[in-house]
Amino acid sequence: MELVIVGIGIIVLLLLIIQFKLNTFVSLVIVAIGVGITLGIPMNKIIGVVEAGIGSQLGHLALVFGFGAVLGKLVADSGGAYRISVTLINKFGRKKIQIAVLIASFIIGIALFFEVGLVLLIPIIFTIASELGISILYLGIPMAAALSVTHGFLPPHPAPTAIALIYKANIGMVLLYGMIIAIPTALIAGPLYTKFAKKIVPDAFARTGNIAALGEQKKFELKETPGFGISTLTALFPVILMAIATVYELLKESLTFSSNIKVDEAIAFIGTPGMAMLLSLLFAIYSMGIARKIPMKELMNSMSKAIQQIAMMLLIIGGGGAFKQVLVEGGVGDYVAKMFTDSSLSPIILAWLIAAVLRICLGSATVAALTAAGLVVPLMAATGTNPALMVIATGAGSLIASHVNDAGFWMFKEYFNLSIKETFATWTALETVISIVGLGGALALNLIV
User: Fold this and answer.
1) Based on the number of CB atoms within 10 Å of its own CB, is 134 exposed (0-12), middle (13-18) or buried (19 or more)?
2) Could you give the 3-state DSSP secondary structure of residue 75?
3) Is 170 helix (H, G, I), strand (E, B) or coil?
4) Which of 10, 34, 70, 363 has a CA positioned 20 to 30 A from the CA of residue 357?
5) Residue range 326-343, pLDDT digits in tens
6) pTM for the full predicted model
7) CA-to-CA distance for 151 and 9, rounded, in angstroms?
């Protein structure tokens, strides 16, 4: 019955948005309340659950999302994004530009949370698309595929790292196997799937150089823009800070000054996503503005516009968090767990399947992965299955079929100015391709290692 209620709730949500043209945020909150009451959450507590869902979602995203949007806007308005795009175009050429975007997104995605990478790369993607006169989706799908693969398969991302601890898997082996599987997965879900998506939703690909989601864009002469090196450094500064913290955490036991608690705390402090984004924003104000003698008033005007442009998107993402929290509090996750209690499937397939069902029902990839790992770890130990491959299979399952209860769905939809149908055909489909190919890779490696 719980799954029926979730299904009806999703149908109602789609009707409110598509048929009745109701604001997406309002629709999400209405459906969250309705589903929560139907699942048995006391009516006097339902608003508290909705508020908690919005708060937890935005509490994680607000700093990173806000600072990331402003950082991207400063890089774009200063001409840094233009410089990066022209350099990439000249280096790879029009025919290989998808590969250039895929490689850049993959590298950034290893150290950066999905949402941060998306916010940082969007201005560059839009600028390249505008310069070449090609569809933003032509570059957006490979970018999203690379970011999503690293988010689901590779440490130091939260879900792979956490479930590696649950399975007692060696982080280095998870990273090694994850890279082996992630690279072909990103190629299949990115450039290859783009060819199929073009046939499914041609109208979405017909929009060449549409950068309305970022507001009015300036036109630049190349000689007026900051250099490629400083532009790239500014855009990747958060990646560098987080990478420093991650590498230090992995190696600190072998370092001579690892016993210095103050050093540990300081490096961990600058490596947290919120702090890394704040420091990167301050660096961008200097490198993209003050160092180039751009008035502070002009810089602050760019910042204000960036915040205005993401305001509604933040509310929509918060609404998705409310829907997710209602499903968690309503016991949907517990019900799914009971469905697989006595299963005799292979641990790799079972981990993927449970994570996939939870992902579809709850929306959160991290929650789905952690829940699935806790359920199948006894079976993994009994069968002797490779724990590193279990991590990848669980992560792959947690990515499947992202839809209206996932913040990533709404971010992709809003940034690329898509309809609900187009978002299903692009974002939801590419996430599903990643999930299935990831499972196939884990099963194939299990025959060898």
Assistant:
1) middle
2) helix
3) coil
4) 34
5) 877 888 767 766 766 666
6) 0.70
7) 28
